[in-house]
Design brief:
Elements lengths: L18 H11 L3 E8 L3 E6 L3 E9 L10 H4 L11 E8 L5 E9 L4 E2 L13 H15 L16 H8 L14 E4 L9 E2 L11 E4 L2 H8 L5 H10 L1 H4 L2 H14 L11 H17 L1
Antiparallel strand pairs: 1-2, 2-3, 3-5, 4-5, 6-8, 7-9
C-alpha cells in the first residue's frame, strides 16, 4: 500500500485522502466497507462492513507504539464482566518508507449511539439501569489483571508525569505518590459510551492507571453540566474520595486549567473550585 502520509508532518485523517488505506483494510480483512458510513477523526477512521460489523482504523507513529504494542482493542477482548463490543479480528501493517503503522480492528456494531461529544453541554437522558450497567463495568474492569500500562492520548501514564502536572496545586512536601494502580479504560468520556444501552468502546489506550483516573476524567468532561458532574461523583464516590482519586482529580483539573485553555470554557471555574478544595484536603492529610 502506498501513501503520502508521512510520519514527519502532522496528519489529520479528517482531511487527508484515505482511499488507499480503506482499500488495504478491505484486502487484509476480506470484507467490503460501506464508505457511506465512514467516520473520520484526527488519527482514526471507522466504517461499517458488509458482514454487519464495524472496523476502526488507526494511524500511529513508531514512537507512539512503545514496548507493549498498540493492540488495546484486541487485548480488551479478554476482559470479563465489562459491556463492550465483541472483538473479531485485527490486522496491522507498516506504511512503506515511513516510521508509521496502521491497525484495523473489527468488532460488533455498537448497541446504540454514542451519548454525545467527549465533553457534554447538556444533561443526557440516562436511566437508572444505564448507571447500574456503567458501575458494573467499571467495577469489573478494576478487578482484571493486565501488564498493560494506560496510554491516555497515546502517552504512557507515569508517576512522574501526573506528579508534575498537579504540583501547581500543592506546596512542596505534599506526597503525590499513588498507592493503588488498577486497570482503567483511560479515555472515559461521553463520546466513548452508548445509550440507552450502556456500552464502553475505544479500548486502544486501556491499561494500569492510578485508582480514580476514569472517574475523574468523566467528572471533568461533565463539568459544564453541574448536575451531571455531581451524579458522576455520587456514582464513583469510592474512587474519587480515595487519596489516589483526589490526586487524579487534581490531574484532570490541571489539564482543564492548562495555559492554552479557552477563556470561555464553562469547566474552568468549577475546576478551579474543586482543585482548591481537593488540594486543601490533601494538605490536611
Amino acid at each position: 500500500m502506498s501513501s503520502s502520509l508521512s510520519a514527519n508532518v502532522p496528519v489529520d485523517l479528517r482531511v487527508e485522502p484515505v482511499d488507499d488505506v480503506l482499500d488495504e483494510v478491505e484486502r487484509v480483512l476480506q470484507t467490503q466497507l460501506d464508505r457511506g458510513t465512514l467516520v473520520r477523526k484526527r488519527r482514526s477512521l471507522g466504517a461499517r462492513t458488509d458482514r454487519g460489523t464495524w472496523v476502526r482504523v488507526e494511524r500511529r507513529r513508531f514512537d507512539k507504539i512503545g514496548s507493549q504494542g498498540w493492540n488495546g482493542t484486541e487485548c480488551a477482548a479478554l476482559l470479563e464482566g465489562v459491556a463492550k463490543p465483541q472483538w473479531h479480528r485485527g490486522a496491522a501493517w507498516r506504511q512503506p518508507g515511513d516510521a508509521v503503522m496502521w491497525r484495523a480492528d473489527e468488532t460488533d456494531l455498537l448497541p446504540g449511539a454514542p451519548i454525545g461529544s467527549s465533553v457534554l453541554a447538556a444533561e443526557p437522558a440516562l436511566s437508572e439501569e444505564w448507571w447500574q450497567a456503567f458501575n458494573r463495568s467499571l467495577d469489573a474492569l478494576a478487578q482484571q489483571h493486565t501488564r498493560r500500562v494506560a496510554t491516555p492520548d497515546t502517552a504512557v501514564i507515569t508517576q512522574g508525569g501526573f506528579a508534575e502536572a498537579i504540583h501547581r496545586f500543592l506546596p512542596g512536601g505534599v506526597d503525590t505518590t499513588v498507592n493503588r494502580w488498577l486497570p482503567a479504560h483511560a479515555d472515559l468520556n461521553w463520546a466513548n459510551m452508548t445509550g440507552p444501552e450502556f456500552c464502553l468502546f475505544d479500548w486502544e489506550d486501556w491499561g494500569m492507571a492510578p485508582q480514580g483516573l476514569d472517574a475523574a476524567s468523566l467528572w471533568g468532561n461533565s463539568l459544564a453540566v453541574p448536575a451531571l458532574a455531581e451524579r458522576v461523583c455520587d456514582e464513583r464516590r469510592h474512587d474519587l474520595e480515595s487519596r489516589d482519586g483526589k490526586l487524579m482529580t487534581l490531574f484532570v483539573c490541571a489539564k482543564i486549567l492548562a495555559p492554552d485553555a479557552h477563556p470561555e470554557d464553562p469547566r474552568l471555574e468549577p475546576a478551579r473550585r474543586m482543585a482548591a478544595q481537593v488540594a486543601e484536603d490533601l494538605q490536611r492529610g
